[in-house]
Amino acid sequence: MATIHPAPEAMQALNRAVPDDQPIVLLNLLRYREWTQHRGEWISGRECYARYANALLPILMRVGGRLLWRGQVGHVLVGPPDETWHEAVLVGYPSRSAFARMLADPVYRSCAQLRTDALEDSRLIVAVAPRRIGPLAWTTLRLATRLVAIKTTRSRKGRACPTGPR
Question: How many CB atoms lie within 10 A of CB 71?
Fold first, then answer.
C-alpha cells in the first residue's frame, strides 16, 4: 500500500515519543510516479517533486529546518526486494514542533498537493539527533578509534580480518 502522508496516529505517537526540545532528522525515501497530472498539466513525478521542493525551501527555513542531504538511491542491500526507491532526502528540524508548524503553514498546505501528485510511494522515518557532543566526547571518540585501528593493524599478521581480542 502506498503511503504519502503521515497518519494522525503516527503524529500523535511522535508527540509522545520525542521531547519537543530535541532536534530531529527526517529520512525521506521517495519513489516517483513516471507521469502525473498536476492542475491539468502532465509532468514527470520528478519534475512535480522539484516544484514541491522549491516551494518548500522558504517554509522550511522559516521554521528553522534545513536540507541536510539529498541523493539518488542506488541499490537496497537490506530490505524487501520489491521495495525500490528513487531518492533519499535528509531534512533536519530543531524540534518536532518546528516540523508540525511547517505542516500547518498555509503556504505549505497549498503546495503539499505537489508532493502527493509526484510520489507513487514514500517513507518518512524520524531519527532523534543527539543534543550535543562536546569536545571531550569527540576527543575520546577519536582516541578510541585510533587505538582500535592500531590494535587491528598489529593483530592482522596476514589475516584479512582481525579475529577479536588477543
Answer: 9
Q: Is the pTM of this model over 0.90?
A: no
In tens, the pLDDT along 44-100 reads: 999 999 999 999 999 999 999 999 999 999 888 898 888 899 999 999 999 999 999
The CATH number of the domain where 50 resides is what? Answer: 3.30.70.100
CA-CA distance, 61 to 56, in Å (whole number)?
A: 9
Query: Within a 10 A sphere around the Cβ of 136, how many other Cβ atoms?
Result: 8
User: Which runs of consecutive H residues, i.e. helices, occur in the chain?
Assistant: 8-17, 45-62, 96-104, 106-118, 135-156
CB neighbour list of residue 139: distance below 8 Å, 6 or more residues apart: none
- Beta strand segments in 80-137, E: 87-93, 119-128
Cell of 95: 524540534
Residue 127 shares a structural domain with residue 138: no
Q: How many domains does the chain have?
A: 2
* Same-domain check for residues 96 and 150: no
CA distance 6 to 125: 10
The residue range of the domain holding 53 is 8-132
Residues 81 and 58 in one domain: yes
